[in-house]
Amino acid sequence: MKVLVTGAAGFIGFHIAAKLNNENHTVIGLDVINEYYDKDLKFNRLAELGVYKQDIRYNEMIISTSSPNFSFIQLDLKDHDGLSELFIKHKFDIVINLAAQAGVRYSITNPMAYIDSNIVGFMNILECCRHNDIKHLIYASSSSVYGMNKNIPFSESDVTDSPVSIYAATKKSNELMAYTYSHLYKIPVTGLRFFTVYGPWGRPDMSPILFANAIISGEPIKVFNHGNLSRDFTYIDDIVDGVNQLLCAIPPISEEEGKPPYRLFNIGNNSPVELNYFISVIENALGKKALKEMFPMQKGDVYKTYADIDALKNSTGYSPSTSIEDGIQKFIIWYKSYYKIN
Questions:
Q1: Element (H or E) spanning 107, and its range?
Q2: 3-state class (DSSP) for residue 216
Q3: Are 26 and 69 in contact (CB under 8 A)?
Q4: Active-site annotation holder among 167, 198, 306, 335
């Protein structure tokens, strides 16, 4: 199939584009390559796919030097005309929308970046899908939509009307927008609430790299809420497998009123890990103890995430298999190699 992967220079998008390319789908990766974090990391991910920084020009398609099945285009989702031209020209079968302004804490101080990318950009994706006969739109939501949800584990049927960050609010908005377009225009849509994804090529603003950097340099780790937090850390390979299983699991179009071809799934590890234990696993993998500096709860943060994955498991057989110990070990091997740490 011909698949558009937005956010292809990002952490999850890069891994999914690589997986689909290896399985001989025709893949076009799209990314604006903004400056939210180190652009060199994004360019180096693309280099792994055979696309190099010196060849990238805005709104110009580049064919991979290592695989004729993969191409890349630098494009902003806010660029409605450029995006429309791309859809019309390439006639995609599947769209996997992973492009978004990420980061909970950054959304507290820079809210407009989230409106531009996550609301305006996603609206453009929906419009392009509407007008170009897309067979299946898969898009990224987030576990952050659950806010301070007290029901454990988090289920797709839980009420999610109380987001505690602008980031979470934009992701909830995406879910409502996608449902509406699926209802009005019979677009098959699957939304995925990702739960704390980590692994090789991960974002430098997330805890694995932040903690590893601090431990290596002998600086204190900032431990929020005194470590009384838990996260459903999910290894990247388990996420990629789940998305890949959904590729052809297209929601059926029904003639029954009120039943749009729309589904929404949690995708996580179904096994929350306490923050202090998570730090100890990184310490063991690095062979060095951390210095800890305790802080109170941060605005926009939540106490615990825990994915109920029964719906996705029943639909596709999804079964995450990577323990936190194995996943962190693989991450640290990559981290030492990439950042040239002995």
A1: helix 104-109
A2: helix
A3: yes
A4: 167
Q: What one-character-per-residue DSSP string does 300-337 give?
A: T--SB--B--HHHHHHH-------HHHHHHHHHHHHHH
The contacts of residue 330 (CB under 8 Å, 6+ apart) are: 199, 200, 235, 322
Structure tokens of 214? Answer: 């601090």
Q: What is the pLDDT along the chain (342 residues), one digit of tens a residue?
A: 999 999 999 999 999 999 999 999 999 999 999 988 999 999 999 999 999 999 999 999 999 999 999 999 999 999 999 999 999 999 999 999 999 888 777 788 888 889 989 999 999 999 999 999 999 999 999 999 999 888 999 999 999 999 988 999 999 999 999 999 999 999 999 999 999 999 999 999 999 999 999 999 999 998 888 888 899 999 999 999 999 999 989 999 887 777 999 999 999 999 999 999 999 999 999 999 999 999 888 776 778 899 999 999 999 999 999 999 999 999 999 999 999 998
Whether 235 and 202 have beta carbons less than 8 Å apart is answered as no
Q: Environment class of residue 186 by beta-carbon count within 10 Å: exposed (0-12), middle (13-18) or buried (19+)?
A: middle
Structure tokens at 303: 């106490």
Question: Bridge partners of 58?
Answer: 74
58 is catalytic: no
Beta strand residue intervals within 244-312, DSSP E: 262-267, 273-274, 291-295
* Residue 122 near residue 32 (C-beta atoms within 8 A): no
Claim: this prediction has a pTM higher than 0.85: yes
Residue in the structure block whose two tokens are 């584990």: 153
Closest CA relative to residue 17, chosen from 243, 198, 234, 334: 243
The residue behind tokens 């978004």 is 100
Q: Which residues contact 25 (CB under 8 A, 6 or more apart)?
A: 1, 2, 3, 69
Q: Which long-range contacts (CB under 8 A, 24 or more apart) does 17-24 make?
A: 17/49, 17/70, 18/48, 18/49, 19/240, 19/244, 20/244, 20/247, 21/49, 21/64, 21/67, 21/69, 21/70, 23/244, 24/69
* Token output for 294: 């305790």
